[in-house]
Amino acid sequence: MKKVALVTGAGQGIGKAIALRLVKDGFAVAYRRLQ
């Protein structure tokens, strides 16, 4: 089963870092860039 994550606030900062790390760790990532 594929791991899936939803990250909000992934446009910059810690949200972006978390999203990138999850992708590196094999997750399918859906993200929302909020400003």
Structural notes for this entry:
Its EC number is 1.1.1.304. Pfam families: adh_short. It comes from Klebsiella michiganensis. The chain is an alpha+beta fold and 35 residues long. It has one domain (1-35). The chain has one helix and two strands, in the order βαβ. Strands 1-2 form a two-stranded parallel ribbon. Strand 1 (4-8), helix 1 and strand 2 form a beta-alpha-beta unit. The longest helix has 12 residues, at 13-24.
List the topology elements:
Blueprint: E1 4-8, H1 13-24, E2 28-32
Parallel strand pairs: 1-2
Write a compact overview of the structure shown:
The protein has one helix spanning 13-24, and strands spanning 4-8, 28-32. With 35 residues, it is α+β, with helices and mostly antiparallel strands. A two-stranded parallel sheet has the order 1-2.
Percent of residues in beta strands: 25-35%
- Count of distinct strands: 2
Order of helices and strands: EHE
Overall pLDDT, averaged? 91
Shape: flat
Count of discrete structural domains: 1
Distance between the termini: 33 Å
Total of helices: 1
Describe the main β-sheet briefly.
2 strands, parallel
Helix content: 25-40%
Give the low-confidence spans. none
Based on the model shown, name its key terms.
35 residues; alpha+beta; two-stranded parallel sheet; 34% helix; flat; EC 1.1.1.304; diacetyl reductase ((S)-acetoin forming) (NAD+) activity; 2,3-butanediol dehydrogenase; SDR_fam
